[in-house]
Amino acid sequence: MSKPVILAVDDDPQVLGAVRRDLRSQYGSTYQIVAASSGREGLETVRELKERSRTSAAFVVDQRMPEMTGTEFLLAAQEIYPQAKRLLLTAYADTEAAIQAINDVGLDQYLLKPWSPPEERLYPVLDDALDDWQANADVPFDGISVLGTTWSPSTYETKAFLARNEVPYRFLDIERDAEAATTAAVAHATESRLPVVILPDDSILLQPSKSELAAAAGIHSAPEAPFYDLAIIGGGPAGLAAAVYGASEGLSTVLLEREAPGGQAGTSSRIENYLGFPKGVSGSDLARRAIAQATRLGAELITPAEVADVRIGHTVKTIVLTDKTELKCRALVIASGMTVRKLDVPGYATFEGAGVYYGAAATEAAIYQDRHVYVIGGANSAGQAAVMFSKTSSKVTMVVRSAALGQKMSQYLVDQISAIDNIEVLTGTRVVAVDGSTTVESIRLENVATGAEEDRPASALFIFVGAVPHSSFLEGTLAMNERGFIYTGSDVTAFSSGWALSRDPFPLETSAPGVFAAGDVREGAVRRVASAVGEGSVAVTLVHRYLDTV
Fold first, then answer.
1. Out of 3.40.50.2300, 3.30.420.10, 3.20.110.20, 1.10.8.60, which CATH number does the structure's domain 5-136 have?
2. What is the pLDDT of residues 6-28, one digit of tens each?
3. What average pLDDT does the segment 248-273 reach?
4. How many CA atoms lie within 13 A of 46 on its CB side?
């Protein structure tokens, strides 16, 4: 297979030579480095690559060139290779043009000249862009195949697990693919035993569990050691931040995640207001970057790992998983986040995974291309999903119980939604029933104020109606309020009587010394990704303070 291409374009021969040299030095073993001395020559090269069916991974282009600017080149090139990463080389005086290009061409990064040393100013930026390209590019497939039906809930769960854990797979619908249907029949896969999962070595799994999938896909699913300095329960933004900081500061660190790293944030189609991502970033991409960072620093990530019980000793905490595996730690961070609240209306349960979904992912966007979908909820996650689906679906209807969209949603999202023609917003409205045969076909809406009901055709519902804290496994172990949010810091002594030490609890410390809570599961937490990341990192600082006392 031919190497993917990185194309460098610059009209200055010395600069072009330097770019080509640095790119070949770092990436020559994996990518073919191609150079062009003008935007026009660069476009000719791009067209030739396309004609030869070559894959382009990235364009590294100077902004100031005669006849055609770098921005103009990228506008034309992205029509030919829309997935290729776009990086602009600029002088300091052109910074404003580079920032404008973020909006004009979806620029991924800009680099200021000179970029010396490349180890600090060029390679880290390009590494990040290429990692992102590799994670999302359409490349020849050689991996796991999932055979099932589009409307099979168990097939959907398998696909969702693999996708959220960044495991490449190919889905074959046995109702549309004759060869896949034959394979499923040979494997004796009845409708109740779907999906059929075919591994790269041609072995077959029938309706595998998440643990079986993890083992087959090479996902790290068992602890390597019996004892750790720091254990973290939950792999959302708070847990991942704690893993990064714990590992970077020399603590033997393990993170336990019951589903897939990223938590609820990992299902977000686009996070626009997270610092450092001017184009926004999807929840899955943010999670992928955090996982790479945590593992590079030495943290151990285990999934799926469902915690059944936690036993608190004076200096040692014991975590018991549902498969009876036990591991021990000196300090523990609870970052278990929230569990989605189910849509409690007649008919919904029948269609979970077959038209009723919790969260939103690009895989579902592809299924419902050119169809009418409904997004239920009025907070940021619902708004982000509506914007994403508006790009592929014929129409998106948001069903919002509150009287105004902006009551729970950031203003930037409200403004985006109001400017998109194919998004309809129904405020003061709720879903009261879901109906269909094998998949969702209609929903019943009720006006909250008047009680008037209306039946509407619908192909899918994406549910964002809130969540409840995932803390039931800690009942009787930690102090929490009636809703299940864990008390920390001064709240421990204010609202419970379980604190036994002479010192006050540290901030983020729970009613059990040495056990900390961070992120959405904590009472008083600000429900934002940035806040969760901050709490996860602060928790590690407090872990060190605790360890100094025992």
1. 3.40.50.2300
2. 999 999 999 999 999 999 999 98
3. 87
4. 25
User: At residue 120, what is the residue type?
Assistant: E
CA angle 26, 28, 32 (to 5 degrees): 135
Q: Tell me the C-alpha distance between 473 and 305, whole Å.
A: 13
- Angle at which helix 529-547 crosses helix 237-248, to 10 degrees, equals 40
Q: What is the mean pLDDT of residues 501-529?
A: 95
- Residue 351, token pair as written in the block: 């269609």
Contact 89/60 with Cβ under 8 angstroms?
yes
Q: pTM higher than 0.90, yes or no?
A: no
Tokens read off for 314: 């004076």
Cβ neighbours of residue 440 closer than 8 Å, sequence gap 6 or more: 351, 354, 355, 356, 434, 458, 459, 460, 461
Task: State the Cα–Cα distance between residues 550 and 545, nearest whole angstrom.
Answer: 9
Tokens of 497: 């009587």
Question: Domains of the chain: which residue ranges?
Answer: 5-136, 144-217, 227-339+469-547, 348-465
**Which among 407, 458, 402 is positioned nearest to 429, based on CA atoms?**
402
- Are residues 479 and 473 in contact, defined by beta-carbon separation less than 8 angstroms? no
Give the N- to C-terminal CA distance of the chain in Å, as an integer.
57
Q: What is the DSSP letter of 457?
A: E
